[in-house]
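Have a close read of the entry that follows and walk me through the local backbone shapes. See right below:
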Amino acid sequence: MKKIVVLTGAGMSVESGLKTFRDADGLWEEYPVQQVATHEGWLADPTLVTNFYNMLRRKCLDTKPNEGHRLVAELEKHYDVTVVTQNVDNLHEAAGSTKVIHLHGELMKVCSSNNPDDERYQQLLTADNCEVEPGTKAGDGSLLRPFIVFFGEAVPNITKAVDEVQQADILIIIGTSLNVYPAAGLVHYVTPGTPIYLIDPSPSVGVGIQNLTHIQKGGSEGMKELSALLTS
């Protein structure tokens, strides 16, 4: 069975009603990135950061996967599919994708602030219990923090993502500007000659990438077109 790797960014979830961070009306317009998405911001005001992610979880729980998410999941009927996402929502899983690598963390998880990657102290929050009371401690006695890769922190899952991309027979990129590293660098790990499909409405994305087919549409419309091509 041929292997597809799907790399998704914020544009994948826009149709589900989740704001991107970088667009003109994105979340960074309302919340300075330094305050809510850096280690320094966490140290300066953990209560603000905790409440910000509580708010994002509530918003996320009100959203559902869009057709693009569902079509990505349906590719598993025909291919071995791994999704590598820059998104922290769980919409790929909700749509039925079974192999998802989260590069920037997971919104519905919290962890130790001493060692976020220590799985012993990671907790999966539920829809009924999605808010963290500021000051709550992890099992190691440190403050419980969002399981989010803050700006400036290492991206632990990038190695897993590179391994998957190197094995891909087809790479699909959806809704990402290819400006955010290290995720943007994944395109350079495909085997030469591997077909790459880019779904993004912006004409300026993907310029200069070899073997690239640019489907200049949003996630759902672009996946309709590509899915018909790949499963016919």
